[in-house]
Amino acid sequence: MSLTAIQTLERTRRLIDDLRALPAETSWVEFKENNSDGHLVGKLIAALSNAARLADQHFAYLVWGVRDGDHEAVGTSFQPGVKREQGQPFELWLASRLQPSLEFRFEEVDYHGQRLVLLTIPAAATAPVEFDRSGYLRIGSATPRLSDHPERLRALWSRLQPYVWETGLAAQFVPGDEVLAQLDYANYFDLTGQRLPDNRQGIFERLEADRLIQRDVGSHWNITNLGAILFAKRLSDFGPSVERKAVRFVAYDGPGRADTVTHRQDGQRGYAAGFQGLVDFIDNLLPRNEHIGSAFREERPLYPAIALRELVANALIHQDMTITGAGPLIELFSDRMEITNPGAPLVSPDRFLDAPPRSRNEALASLMRRMRLCEEQGTGIDKVLTAVELHQLPPPDFRTEGEAVRVVFFAPRRFADMTPEERLRACYQHAALKHESGQRMTNATLRERLGVDAKNASQASVVIRHALQAGLIRPADPEHPRAGYIPFWA
Hints:
Elements: H1 3-20, E1 29-32, H2 38-54, E2 59-64, E3 84-85, E4 88-89, H3 90-95, E5 98-99, E6 105-111, E7 114-122, E8 130-131, E9 134-135, H4 150-167, E10 169-174, H5 176-182, H6 185-191, H7 200-209, E11 213-215, E12 221-224, H8 225-231, H9 240-243, E13 248-252, E14 261-266, H10 271-285, E15 288-292, E16 297-301, H11 305-318, E17 329-332, E18 336-342, H12 362-370, H13 380-390, E19 397-400, E20 404-410, H14 420-436, H15 443-450, H16 457-469, E21 473-475, E22 485-487
Helix pairs in contact: 2-4, 10-11, 11-13, 14-16, 15-16
């Protein structure tokens, strides 16, 4: 047996260990002993694939040879490679009845002396999976039709639609010359660090590999939504589903939307093609504060550049593309900046700092990370909060506004001028940031973050006490409360 085969077998055995360790079957895991009825298996594949997508799992699993009740490995007589259904090989018979097609995989495993069969099923990707033209879903131990549960069908489609949008077509049957005229392909090669090919075929091959274009008939091409939204020279060249997602910027001469608009900019270029220009445009409009260093004076922007960059990038990649007629909005007021993107958040706003990065638009996020236009390890919010603390700004407010996420980024303000809510938010964010870096918040670190003198340590103590009462933080060591504090979720 080759080294690769040994590693594959070891991984499969460990996977079965984990599946057996589950306290009970889940919506995306099923155990059987010997039941291999073809129609039952087909329905289960469709149901488990759909359930895996609803549960945010990449795969679902069906294991033969494991007892349902106690998950004991008892072995199975089922042989998928030998079984035939209606005169056809079993796998071929299943594949012909599943829509959309799935790359499911059977594996026969010697598991600690017992013969098991593992079926790995990819989660539904583009549409609900059907068997014999009917969709199914797992609810407990039942496998009902999807059509009998419209609320779950709607939920499933909501998980699938963002994927559909990225791979959807912004323009079809486009001649090669027009593809090069409509997409800023030179910018693509520059941002991805690739050498610009010296022939058209090489350019098209790279654009196709990153799913920015697709081959169409007659030597023509399709431009995907992903290609248009990132690299369009003019978003107006494409349909409303792309054009209306342009970034809008509005600046006011006061603290409210009723004040006079001083600047307005509607983005004309794709996100990647126009990102640096957008950030530079905003940065040039920001007021400057004079900073006196050890030997000279310098002007610094009111808002840290790195924080602005990360927040704008987050708004682009985390928006819900399926919400029509809406795109990211950046508003600059005299006392704050607000960045809004359509779509309810996938995680609670108070967990943006520690939650693993998730995006509705994985292809968009992946490519923007490759181009270093957004944070690669999901630490963009860490950088925002670190920059805010370094400049001793009021804490940003991450909030849900209807079906949108809004980040409010405040201009400099002294501790004495902060509201009680802002002081609590600053305390919580500081504790979370310290925890993420392996440290603990103390009275001293909070004083430094808030710009409070040591002689006024009691002010920081009051903030900590109120944060404890609000359940935002807790003592790292209950036996020694003054040893430091950590966020409530730690």
